[in-house]
Write a structure and sequence with these properties.
This protein is of the alpha/beta class. The protein folds into three domains: about 100 residues, Conserved hypothetical protein from pyrococcus furiosus pfu- 392566-001, ParB domain (Alpha-Beta Complex); about 120 residues, Arc Repressor Mutant, subunit A (Orthogonal Bundle), CATH 1.10.10; about 40 residues, no CATH class. It contains eleven helices and eight strands.
Length: about 325
Amino acid sequence: MAKRKRLTPAQAGYLEPAQQAPEVKSMFAPTPPIAQVAGEASATAALQEVTERLRQARDGGMLVQKLPLDAIVADHLNRDRLMADAEELKALVESIRTHGQRTPIEVVDLDDGTFGLISGWRRLSALEMLAKETGETKYQSVLALLRRPETASEAYVAMVEENEVRVGLSYYERARVAALAVKQGVFVTEKIALQRLFATASRPKRSKIGSFLTLYHALDGSLRFPTQLSERLGLRLAKSLEADASLGAALSAQLTAEPPQNPEAEQAAILAVLSAGQGDGQAKATPAAKPIEIRPGVFMRNEGGYLKPRILLEGPKVDAGFLQRLEAWLKANL
């Protein structure tokens, strides 16, 4: 009988106790304490750096901020622009309604939660109009750049320069802001104010603004449409005011007693006074006044000019009965 061979397992140790599997470290294992501390310190340093850069950008006027409308003090400076053109302001309102505010205003931090307006009065006015009209939240804030002028004079210069670039000021507005800046003590003299506020203007232009200062001092408050005065008429009036010290008071009284209803009427009144020879020390012949038909058959003519009016009534309806009624009316109403 043949002897059988003993079979051995295919794998040595197959029947032996299983060995412990090698340890596999997880990628989510706890971070050593020293590494955790270093990471937190690095993150804090990065956050501080970002915060500091944002602060520098904000203080340097490079960071646009959204501020509540009621936090803006619009009259922080005496505004150089007396009034906004109605059509231009309407166009700006529609632009902001359609596209939003594209250009930030400029403000200075007053350190009490409010911000003084330096430039952007028209944009601020347009947003206020939209907020009042619509009541929508998006119009109740304004995009702004923070400025930090070292002195009040720098703030005035910034305001004037911004308006000169965007929408040129009238000569009267230029003179007015120079006079008000001196009155507030921002500049010592009007000459210095002109040199600082209009440093980029030519000398002849500054001289013309200086001439309008004469006009401002003599007629401020009496002129209803000063921004509509042309350069030529304004310079002529200023020259006459310098030549005749009494002209300012006389013209002011005339404009106050008979307030013109539009720029054309105001300029006509000024021209009438100038044409009468006031202010140059020489009497000139008063041009014949054109009669005005105040009612059918009754014409009125002013033959004495605006300073010393002399009224003449004439026409087919000016008869004895008319004169009696006129006399009775004058006694009852004057």
